[in-house]
Each structure stands twice: as structure tokens, then as C-alpha cells.
């Protein structure tokens, strides 16, 4: 089993679990399972068991976030893909450091000279002596790439867990929105009954009746859309987790203490701890080694060959030895060295590009977070209580014969409608919080990023 | 108890009254005779008046042809004797402005103030008035008085006071700009003039929106000697309208609609009944100070004679018998009648929307079965399912329901309604039929009147009403 250690990358990651006081990206809210490896000091397997197509849920139980995260670790296929990529890079490192095999063969020379079987009939063995630490450098290069692969796998884990969390909140929100839409349908039906009552006493006309039927039917469509939305959200959640069976109801809370974020602190943490950036640094390290490796490539390896056989003309056993080197007279690997240096420069800018991309992405998520937080705060503190109080005031006024029922229904509709907006803002706030806490890594079903970008110097049959 | 009526001629008595008025000096003590003292002086041992014997003050009777003084009790006097000062004026739920004599002038202090008035039990509204009252307390004076009004403006904006119907020096007419400068907030202004008229007048702000906010009050000027035939009761009622949105207590003086209706600052059934004795001659002075609404005022069980307007007394030859009198905005109507018919009589504006307050559509849970608003309040994030009320057979009749569902009164409100002496012994659910511009005229036989108005013995709901009904 492969384990992820926080020290696996050349890029320093002070805490994969997030800053103190923040929710750990791999730690469920109830804190019951899957604590951050670095926080607990435990070695947690990055990947669970092999994904199964067999049903894993017994059904009927409401699924908590921690349960869903655990399922995703087991069943999301991109995590298995990321694991394979790590294995691939480690295999390359292994292969690149292996010493060249000796060559053995049979030699028959000057056959039929003077009617003999030949001047030499025998065997030889040839060995290439690798110089200048080429094998060590090659292995280090691929080990650095393996580290990058591990960091990218960690990033993939964030993508999956973040994806599960975001989708969990979207599903939770869809469940609550469906409830509110059903309440709004009741209100629309009440409005229809009310207008029919008014029609009976001449306070509404046929056009009003038609309009209430329109509104009621439109609200029914809203309910149906909310049902479709919920089904879609559940399917999406199941897909991110990697399950083929339908998911049931999820359980959890959309609301949580509203804690603001400071831009400078969020940016500092992101640049210090982002697995993507760490992987870029690991690849830069690999490219540094690659330049060294290509620089030593022209230093000739020594080929030594020994032979033993029978000289039939002299009727005696003879031996031979040869040694030779390739003289880097015309091709001293100058082109590849230039290409390696170019790759190193490219990768160095890739690190900078990654930083800037993260900063840009953080700005977007931070905007979403701040906007949603402001809206959620105001909806909690002012808008919802005031809308609810307006509804209560009209209800009480109706009870005291000072308000029309139509006025009550309008206030009721406003209260329910604003709860829909509030739920949307809660989901938006949760998603932004998950993204920022999870290093902006989203998309749990996107294929894991490869270590080597297209066009990079890649291995030859013998990786180097 | 029936008393005989003294014989006298109306015109002769009237002449004597005028003469007495001319001779009557101002009260240097600053006090008019009390009702009790006047009553005691007035009720002679034998007041039988055989010339009015064709009309019974105690039973329904026609009283002869329309040309007759007997006709519908037209000139039938009250139980008081003629030639006496008028009975005190009574405006239920309103006070009077006290005065003091200063250098031969009756001086009244008037403060223009914001008012919090309880229209219905527990329903306090923010209006404006005088001396903390809406309508303002009554100014009561006598023909021939010289009066001075020291007006303090305690409102946050300028105002003036207009003396409606009075023939006075122009500089005291109270019209902003035209006759005087506005009285700034916190400032005082003095009006002073002689009263040569008698009748039902009123005072009010001459700033339009302040009028809509209720700033008016009675200004009753009595003749020194009461008009003949003399009345035993002199009641006054000011009708007003306001538009007050649901869930607020402040009128919208800019509104073109009016949904709260008050008589002397209260809405029915919180208006205090007018209580008189069986057989008394009663005068009621109506004054309409609604912003834009006229009121056809209807009295049950009696026919009354229009005897005065906001301009003063109407000659007897021009009196008109009515059951309903249309009182327009800024108009006063005095009418008189003999309270021959015992009972609790509704007395109301006949405009249907004025017979209720803050009307709302009669739809929604209040006409549905088993639906209570408290169920909505108990679970705000959700709501009860809708009951299809139209499935009930009654809804097959277009126009159903028409019944105005009664407002639920809590125990405290009921205590306020029935805690007044004037309501004792009325039917238990009397308040259900008294709403908006409605009050009640209670005509009670003397013994029942005394039980209601003077005794401290317990009276059960309905007891007085049933006693009256039994006697019929």
C-alpha cells in the first residue's frame, strides 16, 4: 500500500490540514473520521480499496458528510488513476537507475584459414561502465517526478473531497429548496382558493381566476424543477463519490458560524501549502536534475570487452580484451542540453504561472465567499427576521380583522421566496469556503493532472 | 312615573325667555348653575299641559295633523319648566375646557397637542387635537359673553384656530395669511370677541391636513334662557373619519379613503351610549367633522325634528321631521324628540361602510372550517394545507358569504366595553351590532334609569333590556 507523507515533496508543506482554527480539508465537520494525517501523526492511506460496482449502501439511511467522504476515498476512480501515475513515476525512477546489462556472445574469426576452423572460435562478454553518475542522476530525476506525482495525487484527493463537500451542500440546499417550493405551492393553491372565494362575493373577476391558475401551475413547475434539481444533485454526488447506485437523502447543516476570512492570510496560506504549487516546485527540481543529467551525458561511458577462445591455427587457447569509448566529437549532446535548460526555464515560469493562477482563482473564490457571507449575514440578521416579522404582523392583523388574507399570502410568499434566496447564498458561501480551505481544488471527476507536460523531454526506452 | 305638564303657550314662553336672556347678567363666580340645581328649580309641582294631551310622551302616538303643535311631539316640552337656563351640554367621552373670569371676560386656555386616542379597546391611534383630547374638549359659553382664548401651539408645526360659524371681528377668524400669521410651534396667540349668537358651533385648525388629523371641538353657545319647548337632555356628537393602514396607528391625512370612524373620538361599540329617562325631551347636536364624508344619521324607534343647524336655531315653522338626517362635512344638525319609546336604540350613520371599521375582505381562514390563524403562527416556516372552502354547499349561491364576521374581543376589551355605567344591563352580545359610526340611545323608565345610572347594585347582562321588553 502506498502512503502519502507530508515530507514527500521537495516543496515544503507546513500543514496539509489547513491553518490552526480552520477546518481541515480532510476532516469532516463532526471530526469523527479521516483526520488530517499530519495533524494526528497517523499515516492514513491516500486511497482506499478498489472501486466496486456492487452496491455499497444498504439504503434508507441518511448520509452524513463524513460517510460520503469515506465512500469517495474508496470509490472515486480518479484517485486510483492518480495512484497509478505515482506508481508509473516510481517505476521510471527504478528503471532509470538500473545498471546496463552485460553483453555476451560467440565469435568465430578467420574460419577456414589454412584449412582450420579459424583463428578464433570462442565467446566474449562486454560491459558498459557508466560514468559521471548518470544512473544516479536519472534515478533522482524520476524520483523528483514521483514526488510531483504524489503531490498531484494529493491535489486530486483535495479535488475529490472538495467536490464531495460542495456537492453535499448543493444537495442539502436542493433538499431544503424543494421543501420551500412545496410550501410556495401551498401558498399558490391558497391564493387560488382565496380568489375563488373573492369571486363568489364579487371582489375578483374571471381574469383574476385565470391568473391564479397560471400562478399555481407555474409554481407547480417550480416544484417539479426543484425535484429534478435534487435528483440531478444526488446523481452528481454519487458520481463524484464513484458510486453507480442512487443516493438517498443527505443529512447535515447548511448553517454554521460565520467567520470572515482575511485576504492576506488566505493568500499566504494558499501559496505556502498548495499541492499544485508544491508539484510545480517538485517538477522544477526534476528539471534541474535533468539539466545536470544531460550535461553529463557526453562524458563517455567505458565499454570493456573480454573474450576467450581457441586459435585453431595455432592450436592454442587465446584471450582477448578490448576497451573503447565514444568520442563526443560531433554530438556532445549540446542540443538536448539546450532543450533541458529550456524545459527548466519553462518549468521555472510554470511555478510562477501557477502562483499567479492560484492568486487569480483565489480572488474569484474570495469574491464569491465575501459576497455570500455578506448576504448570508444580512439574511440571518435582518432580511429573514424582518420578512418573517412582516408575515407574523399580517397574520396577527388578519386575526384582528385589520388585514386581508391576500395581504397575508403576499407576506407569506415573500417570506418563503426570501428563504429560497437565503438557501442559495448558504450554498454559495459553503462552496466558496470549501474551495478556499481546499486550495481551490475542484472537479472531483476531472482526470488527475500528469507529471510531465506535453512536449517535455521524455524518456527513451531506457529512461534517463 | 308620569307627571303632568304645565300649560303654557310656546310663543309667550319664548318671548319671556328672550326677555330673561336680556336681563341675565354674567356669573361673576365664573360658574353656571348646575344641572341639579336647575332641575330642582324647574320641576314644578304640576306641569300638566292639556294642550299637548293628544301626544303621549310615554307611548307611540301620532299627535294630530302635521299642522298641529302636537304632531309627532313637535312642540311637546320636556319635564323641565320653561324660562330657565339651558341644561348642561353633554358630549359623551369628551370633557369641557374650564374657564376663569378675567376682567369680565371668560378666558379659556387651549393647547394644540398631539393626542393618543383609544378608538377601540386597545387600539390607540396617533392623532392631533386640543388639550390632549380628540375631538377637543367642549367650549361652553352663553350668548352675550365676551370670551378670550389663549391658544398655545404645542404642535411641531404652525397652526391657527378658526371659530366656525361665528360672526366675529375678522382679525380673529383664524385663517392663516388672510387674517393672521400662523402661530409658530411653542408660541401663544390670543383671540377675544363677543358672542351675540347662540347655537351649535365648533372650533378647528384652519390648516387642512391638521383638520384631517382631527383638530376640532364643539363650541356650544347657549341662550341665557333655554329655548322652548325646553329639553331635559342636551347631547353632542362629533362624527369623524380617518384612514389608518393596517398595522399602523397613525392616520394618512393624504388618503382619499377613510376606514376608521369615530363618534367623539371612539368607534362603536366603544362609543358611550346616550342615556335618558323615558318621556324626556332630548336634543342631540350632530356635527360632522369628517374630512370628506357626509353622514346620513339614523335613529331607531323615534321620529325627531330638525331644530337647528350650524347657523343656529331654525324657526319652528321650518322644522322638519325625520328619522334620518344627512349631515354634511362641517355641518351641524340639532334635532329634538320626546323619548317615548323605552329600550336600547341604535343610532348610527347609515352608510354601510361607516357601520364598521377597517373593513377587510371576508375571505381566507375566517370563512374556512377548522382553520385558525394560530396554526400559521405556530409553525412559521411551514403552513397548514389549504382547505377548499368552495366545496361547501353554501358557496353554490353567488354572493355568499355576506356576513361581516365579528371581531373577536378579548376579555380585557369586553371589560372596557361593559365597565361603563352607561352600558349596564344591555344584552350580553350588544357590541356585535354596534360598530363604526354607531352609538346607542338608551331610553329607560325612571326606576331602571336610577338603577343603571345611580345605584351600585349588581346588574346582570341583559337584565335591564329584558325588564324594558317585559313592560311592553
Tell me what the structure shows.
The complex is a heterodimer of chains A (464) and B (472). Chain A is an alpha+beta fold and 464 residues long. Chain A has nine helices and four strands. Chain A is elongated and about 135 Å long. Chain B has 472 residues and is α+β, with helices and mostly antiparallel strands. Residues 1-48 of chain B have low confidence and may be disordered. Chains A and B meet through helix 4, helix 8 and helix 9 of A and helix 4 of B.
- CATH class of one domain in chain B, anyone? Mainly Beta
* Number of beta-strand segments of chain A: 4
Task: Determine the strand fraction of chain A and express it as a percent band.
Answer: 5-15%
Total number of strands of chain B: 21
Largest sheet of chain A: 4 strands, antiparallel
Q: Profile the largest sheet of chain B.
A: 7 strands, mixed
Task: Give the oligomeric state.
Answer: heterodimer
- Low-confidence runs of chain B (pLDDT<50, min 5 residues)? 1-48
- What would CATH call the architecture of one domain in chain B? Sandwich
Q: Helicity level of chain A, as a percent range?
A: 55-70%
Q: Mean of residue pLDDT of chain B?
A: 88
What is the CATH topology classification name of one domain in chain B? Answer: Immunoglobulin-like
